[in-house]
Amino acid sequence: MPKPVTDYFEHKHAGRHILVWNRKVKLPIECGGPQAIQEGYCTACKMTQQIDTFGNTDQYICAECGKEVTVIGAGKRTKIADDGFVTLFEKQGENAVATVYRYESEISAEKESKSPYAHWNVSDWRRVWPIEKYVYTKEGNFARHRYVTSYFGYGATEYTDKWHRVDRVRHTKGYGDHTIFDMTELQGTVLENSHFDVYIEMMHKRYVHVRSDGDPIKYCDLYTKYPGMENLLLNGFNKIVEEKVDGSKAATMALRLKGNCKPSDILGLNKAEQRICRAEQWNCKKLYCYKLLRTPSYTPTQAEYDTMEAVMFRTTKDTARDFTNYCAGDFKKGVRYINAQKRDRKRAVVTIVNLWRDYLSMSEKLGEDIESPHRRYPKNLQREHDRVVQKTEFLESETLKAGFQKLAADFAPFAYEKDGLCIRIAESEKELIVEGKILNHCVGGYGKSHCEGRSIFFVRRADAPDTPLYTLQVELKRKSKLQLHGYGNERDGKPIPQEVTAFISDWLQNVLLRYDVQTHTFTEKRKKTKAASAA
Q1: Are 341 and 331 in contact (CB under 8 A)?
Q2: Which whole number is the average pLDDT over 295-321?
Q3: How many C-beta neighbours within 10 Å does residue 45 have?
Q4: How far apart are the first and last CA of the chain?
């Protein structure tokens, strides 16, 4: 075991606590008879002794070693347990190696029997062992670990005595308890100019109340692939570096690390913009949105940043893509239009974007010219949306017609009735259009999605099966609910009744999860999938 790791472990655990417990001793009657005493086990000198009566967490001077220790516990069973990770960076030949050590300790006291005169047995064990190694070479990085994933639990691991090589350095969130390193000893390796000590110091300053070394293993892996990480760190773009190490999706979208070393090339900002980014500590989402919105003579407002972020990162991938296409490169105008509709209609950004997207999609389907500004950015979006919904004709192609017919035949067993409600699958695109018109929402344009597996089901009263009530969309492959809406997508503020949501949950559990799509039969036992919690 390397001495730095052993020294850290001993420093962390030695001379800190004393376990105490109560016990009675038998004395002659002339000496007072049975008396209650308090005994304790000092973790510094590992000696058991009789001590004065103290309360929990009081300070006490050990009579054996003279060290000041903290009193812990008093009862039928006492225990001090601790575990964690220590990461040691060292040089091995021309390579730099980061070894992750796991430490565990437990000190406990337990009575031999239930008798008040019984002695207490003390168990004191501690161990440290290496579980992972990360090797940084000039040819490429790789990892070795000493555990395998257990088949009897979710994410559980089972430690082995053999090292297994892994070609991809994983994200090691949680292994930043403490890092031991000496940058002078890493000279001549690929990490000599990585400045990961600056990264650790940055994380300490950011998380003042909770000590955190961050993830130096992942940072070093990124540095060996993209040396520009060091320049971002030294130039003060701390938040961006932290998000990239954490594996943020926005960081991948906003940064251009491959082949670039200069911050201006990586960030896509000039010097003046870099000063603002550094001073305000932009995150990757704001950086990405700024680059989409900026023009030579225009500075986006905070409200425009927030709207752009909501569109690009809080909606689906398809919605963000369609928004990009419909803006035709003029994101400033698109964001200002969304904000204006938000103020006038008092709705959330995501709702406005989806409404605008559906309006333009249906307008294209009808052959309307959406290139003109008054068509692309209508002043009254809701009115225009309702107009194209009502104007949508039955344009079902032969492919869609065949898809509807196949789904209607295959999934007829999905029909279900309980507690005065019933549910069935949509049988034609015409039914979707009628449903959308009556309930004043845009399900009429979902014919293609329906045939591709994101299918539509009608929820109605059992005594009025032909009257639209609620519309449910389900992902058939994953067997999970996507969305459930009634009249006007609940724009009137009335929530979906509890009886309807309970009916949908019951249908998911007892019908959808039990249905085998390939054999068109129901299983005896319900399949355990994530859809159970989605209900």
Answers
A1: no
A2: 87
A3: 18
A4: 51
**CB < 8 Å & 24+ apart, contacts of 360-365:** 360/322, 360/326, 361/322, 361/445, 362/388, 362/389, 362/392, 362/442, 362/444, 362/445, 363/388, 365/392, 365/395, 365/445
Nearest 5°: CA angle at 210, between 207 and 212?
A: 65
Half-sphere exposure of 345 (CA within 13 A, CB side): 22
Contact assessment for residue 339 and residue 307, using Cβ atoms and an 8 Å cutoff: yes
Show Cβ contacts of residue 99 under 8 Å, excluding neighbours closer than 6 positions.
2, 87, 88, 90, 130, 132, 133, 134
* Sign of the torsion angle spanned by Cα atoms 45, 51, 57, 60: negative
What is the rounded distance in angstroms from the CA atom of residue 369 to the CA atom of residue 385?
Answer: 15
- 3-class SS of residue 152: coil
- What is the mean pLDDT of the segment spanning 431-453? 84
Q: What pLDDT digit, counting tens, does each position of 116-164 carry?
A: 888 888 888 888 888 888 899 988 888 887 776 655 555 566 677 778 7
| Residue at token pair 């540095």 | 223
One-letter amino acid at 196 equals F
Mean pLDDT on 354-360:
90
Cα–Cα distance for residue pair 258/254, rounded to 1 Å: 12
Task: Identify the H or E element spanning 531.
Answer: helix 531-534
Residue 367 has pLDDT above 50, yes or no: yes
Question: Do the Cβ atoms of 400 and 445 come closer than 8 Å?
Answer: no
Task: Answer for the pair 105, 17: CB distance below 8 angstroms, yes or no.
Answer: no
Closest to 338 (Cα-Cα) out of 392, 291, 293, 282: 293
- Residue range 178-227, pLDDT digits in tens: 888 889 889 999 999 999 999 988 888 876 555 677 888 889 989 999 99
Burial class (CB in 10 A: 0-12, 13-18, 19+), 165: exposed
Spatial contact of 12 and 182, defined as CB atoms under 8 Å apart: no
What string of H, E and C letters represents the secondary structure of 383-421?
HHHHHHHHHCCCCCCHHHHHHHHHHHHHCHHHCEEECCE
CA-closest candidate to residue 412, choices 461, 460, 455: 455
